[in-house]
């Protein structure tokens, strides 16, 4: 299709915001002529030499980045700018009435249309007909009318209003003085404001009064601008007005001292959390004190803290770990602090593993605490993971992004490596800015009000609320407190309606976290749980050489039946030599795992090789690394030297025995310890396969007992008994022949029959060799012939 040259094409007049046939436009780096506009479709005729005609939607054409309407010389036309009428919202009622009145007067001057005509007449009043009067005459006539009505409006004012209305429309009639805003700092100079903000920063100092701040600013201003000091320094009342405008008060200075430390920048502006639409898309993790005193492993009261996570979408609490806060003690100057404990990077890593594994139900929990009796999609979850059979009603969530604060446990390399292994992105919140993770900050208060205050040993969040005899109450052990936390989450939190959870179909319906989880699962599916082998990689990792004695970790030796496979064996990795990767859990130190990377591709071989503690048989209960350190400290104090592994293991067993016997059975005045604190472990295996499944159980009455053995053992094989050294073997004629003793094989000792009073006479090998010889004998030589077969040690005569 040929097109006329651009110079010969008739360019229609009109604004650039209207597409008309005959216009020239620029689209996709080419020039086109609008041939026709049919509804929402535009027919374009290419004006370039190698261009092609096109037929596109209007929305696609105008949305292009280089779209423009071109003039005859190829210059893009500027589109008409629509007035921003939102400025009218800043005017009060009187100002809007004034603007509307000026609009009617200006329209009469410009068009001759009468003001507020009720009967619909459009005939101009005398003196306002544009066909018979000039605009200057109309300006003068309108000014005289306004003056007679007592309104302000000179000829120049009427002219200015008319010209502004023609250029800007309704916005031109607004008095710009109405839109002026006062300076946020008043009439004070900006240099003075900068000095106030500079001197009010505490910088680690104690907060003072505002009068001290005024003196500091005055000294700094005189030092910085000595020549202009008299002009810049305001009056006393003006200075305090400036502080009020800046939001500076005595209370704000005290908060600044508590919030901002030295070399810390204030937080940025307001933060708006992003919208989430998937399970685990954003999971917030935090640690908070539970305001509860529990009974520690040593029997003494201990403060505890909770580290847990909350899913932004469903508000589920997929994991939680309660850890005691104890400072520990040192044996001497410069020695390592031993016995201390608190939340560590390993606990944060184990928290991620808990989120991706089912929670086994505890004995004694209500039936409603099971996943099969809850609002969770149990059928889909069971099909995804068989471990959900008998699991608690706590969902499995696989985090994609975790939002954490700037605590040391989240900055540790072990936590970062664990997140990288699982493909989880770590998003740190800003320094001392609680709004960055406001969901979990609000959940902290809900947990303390819904769980902590109902637990024995509740201390309150301040000394004013603490009771006098909290330490003397029957405190809960750490394990019991951990189980209560899981039970409260399963029965209360997951089944309580949350105002922030709304049904996507019926927004007026408020959902519980379990119901919101089921709604999300119906959209995206069940998150894939992590296997025990995947979780094993979240444990602490070290490198050790396998010697003939085993593996040595923290003064403990671990052995395995496969020591010979790795003893002084090179790993094959450059730089590691004979050091194999070992994974271990301080909460379950009975076993460590050696990872053999050389069999990763072999499905028939497991790369995880278990090594067990050498003296585990001396410890009869579950124990932890913390108890081992406590026992090692006791042994070293008693013996004045480092104890052996066996001695420390016996000391651990004594501590656990005291915990089993209770506080009233020990002779020592020290408080009896509780059971060893063991949080939820990572080794959550799949449900055991029943080897008798599918077999019909036998009825007790149909089982026939086996007959009793009423024959002596030596007579089970007649004729095959090996005679003793004093016996003679009878021949066929009834005469006895001397027994010929076979020559003993070198290096082999035979026990005499007297040494085997309850066994068969003769060696077992001799008896069974005789049985094989009897089976190979011809029928003619069978026992029925009447001849007694010769014994294995007899010779025929």
Characterise this structure.
- There is one protein chain.
- With 797 residues, this protein is α+β, with helices and mostly antiparallel strands.
- The protein has six domains: 1-81; 85-179, no CATH class; 190-259; 283-327 and 340-532, Nucleotidyltransferase, domain 5 (2-Layer Sandwich); 538-661, no CATH class; 759-792, no CATH class.
- Helices cover 28% and strands 13% of the residues.
- It contains 21 helices and 18 strands.
- Strands 11-14-15-16-13-12 form a six-stranded antiparallel sheet, with no helix packed on it. Strands 4-3-2-1-5 form a five-stranded antiparallel sheet. Strands 8-7-6-9-10 form a five-stranded mixed sheet, with helices on both faces.
- α3 packs across α4 and α19 packs across α20.
- It is elongated and about 150 Å long.
Strand order, biggest sheet? 11-14-15-16-13-12
Q: How big a fraction of the residues is strand?
A: 5-15%
Given as residue ranges, the uncertain stretches (5+ residues, pLDDT < 50) are: 1-11, 260-270, 663-669, 682-687, 724-748, 751-760, 782-797
| CATH top level assignment of the largest domain | Alpha Beta
Determine the fraction of residues in helical runs and give it as a percent range. 25-40%
Query: What gap, in angstroms, lies between the N and C termini?
Result: 128 Å
Layout of secondary structure:
Layout (H helix, E strand, L loop, with lengths): L23 E4 L2 E9 L2 E6 L7 E4 H5 L5 E3 L22 H19 L23 H14 L6 H14 L21 H11 L9 H15 L4 H4 L3 H10 L4 H10 L23 E13 L5 E11 L7 E7 L19 H11 L22 H7 L16 E4 L3 H4 L1 H10 L2 E4 L9 H13 L27 H14 L21 H12 L7 H5 L3 E6 L5 E3 L2 E4 L3 H4 L12 E7 L2 E8 L12 E6 L11 H15 L5 H17 L67 E2 L5 E2 L26 H12 L22
Parallel strand pairs: 6-9, 9-10
Antiparallel strand pairs: 1-2, 1-5, 2-3, 3-4, 6-7, 7-8, 11-14, 12-13, 13-16, 14-15, 15-16, 17-18
Helix pairs in contact: 2-4, 3-4, 5-6, 10-13, 19-20
């Amino acid at each position: 299709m040929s097109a006329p040259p651009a110079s010969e094409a008739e360019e229609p007049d009109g604004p650039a915001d209207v597409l008309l046939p005959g216009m020239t436009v620029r689209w996709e780096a080419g020039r086109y002529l609008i041939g026709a506009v049919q509804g929402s479709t535009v027919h374009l005729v290419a004006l370039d030499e190698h261009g092609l005609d096109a037929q596109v939607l209007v929305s696609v054409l105008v949305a292009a980045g280089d779209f423009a309407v071109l003039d005859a010389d190829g210059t893009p036309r500027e589109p008409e700018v629509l007035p921003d009428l939102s400025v009218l919202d800043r005017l009060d009622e009187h100002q809007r009435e004034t603007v509307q009145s000026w609009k009617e007067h200006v329209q009469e001057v410009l068009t001759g249309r009468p003001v507020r005509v009720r009967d619909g007449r459009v005939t101009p009043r005398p003196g306002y007909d544009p066909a018979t009067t000039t605009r200057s005459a109309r300006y003068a006539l309108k000014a005289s009318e306004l003056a007679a009505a007592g309104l302000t409006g000179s000829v120049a004012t009427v002219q200015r209003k008319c010209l502004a209305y023609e250029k800007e429309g309704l916005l031109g009639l607004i008095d710009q003085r109405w839109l002026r805003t006062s300076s946020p700092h008043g009439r004070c100079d900006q240099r003075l404001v900068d000095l106030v903000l500079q001197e009010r920063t505490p910088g680690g100092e104690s907060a003072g009064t505002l009068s001290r701040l005024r003196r500091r600013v005055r000294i700094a201003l005189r030092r910085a601008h000595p020549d202009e000091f008299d002009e810049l320094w305001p009056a006393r009342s003006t200075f305090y007005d400036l502080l009020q405008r800046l939001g500076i008060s005595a209370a704000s200075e005290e908060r600044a001292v508590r919030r901002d430390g030295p070399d810390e920048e204030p937080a940025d502006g307001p933060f708006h959390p992003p919208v989430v639409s998937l399970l685990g898309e954003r999971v917030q993790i935090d640690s908070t004190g539970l305001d509860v005193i529990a009974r520690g492993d040593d029997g003494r009261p201990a403060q505890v803290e909770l580290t847990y996570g909350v899913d932004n979408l469903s508000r589920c609490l997929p994991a939680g770990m309660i850890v005691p806060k104890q400072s520990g003690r040192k044996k001497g100057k410069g020695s390592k602090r031993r016995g201390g404990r608190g939340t560590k990077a390993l606990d944060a890593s184990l928290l991620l593993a808990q989120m991706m594994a089912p929670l086994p139900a505890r004995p004694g929990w209500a039936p409603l605490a099971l996943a099969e009796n809850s609002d969770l999609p149990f059928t889909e979850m069971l099909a995804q993971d068989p471990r959900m059979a008998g699991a608690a009603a706590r969902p499995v969530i696989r985090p994609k992004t975790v939002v954490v604060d700037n605590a040391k446990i989240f900055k540790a390399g072990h936590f970062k490596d664990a997140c990288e292994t699982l493909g989880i992105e770590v998003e740190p919140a800003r320094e001392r800015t609680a709004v960055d993770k406001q969901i979990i900050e609000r959940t902290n208060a809900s947990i303390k009000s819904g769980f902590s205050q109902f637990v024995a040993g509740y201390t309150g969040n301040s000394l004013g609320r603490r009771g006098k005899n909290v330490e003397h109450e029957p405190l809960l052990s750490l394990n019991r407190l951990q189980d209560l936390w899981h039970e409260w989450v399963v029965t209360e939190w997951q089944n309580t309606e949350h105002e922030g959870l709304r049904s996507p179909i019926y927004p007026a319906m408020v959902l519980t976290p379990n119901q919101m989880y089921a709604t999300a699962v119906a959209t995206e599916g069940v998150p894939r749980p992590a296997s025990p082998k995947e979780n094993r990689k979240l444990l602490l990792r070290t490198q050790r050489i396998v010697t003939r004695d085993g593996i040595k970790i923290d003064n403990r030796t671990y052995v395995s039946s496969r020591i010979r496979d790795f003893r002084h064996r090179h790993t094959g990795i450059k730089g590691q030599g004979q050091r194999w990767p070992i994974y271990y859990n301080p909460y379950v130190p009975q076993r460590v795992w050696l990872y053999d990377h050389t069999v990763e591709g072999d499905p028939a071989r497991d790369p995880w090789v278990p090594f067990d503690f050498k003296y585990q048989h001396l410890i009869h209960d579950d124990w932890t690394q913390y108890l081992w350190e406590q026992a090692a400290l006791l042994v070293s104090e008693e013996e004045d030297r480092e104890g052996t592994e066996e001695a420390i293991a016996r000391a651990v067993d004594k501590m656990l025995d005291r915990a089993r016997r209770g506080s009233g059975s020990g002779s020592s005045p020290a408080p009896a310890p509780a059971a060893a604190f063991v949080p939820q472990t990572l080794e959550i295996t799949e449900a055991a396969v029943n080897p008798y499944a599918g077999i019909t159980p036998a009825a007790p009455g149909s089982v026939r007992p086996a007959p009793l053995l009423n024959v002596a053992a030596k007579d089970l094989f007649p004729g095959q008994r090996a005679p003793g050294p004093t016996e003679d073997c009878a021949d066929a004629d009834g005469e006895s022949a001397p027994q010929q003793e076979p020559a003993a094989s070198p290096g082999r000792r035979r026990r005499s029959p007297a040494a085997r009073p309850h066994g068969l006479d003769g060696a077992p090998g001799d008896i069974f060799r005789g049985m094989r010889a009897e089976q190979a004998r011809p029928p003619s030589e069978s026992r029925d012939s009447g001849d007694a077969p010769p014994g294995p040690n007899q010779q025929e005569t």
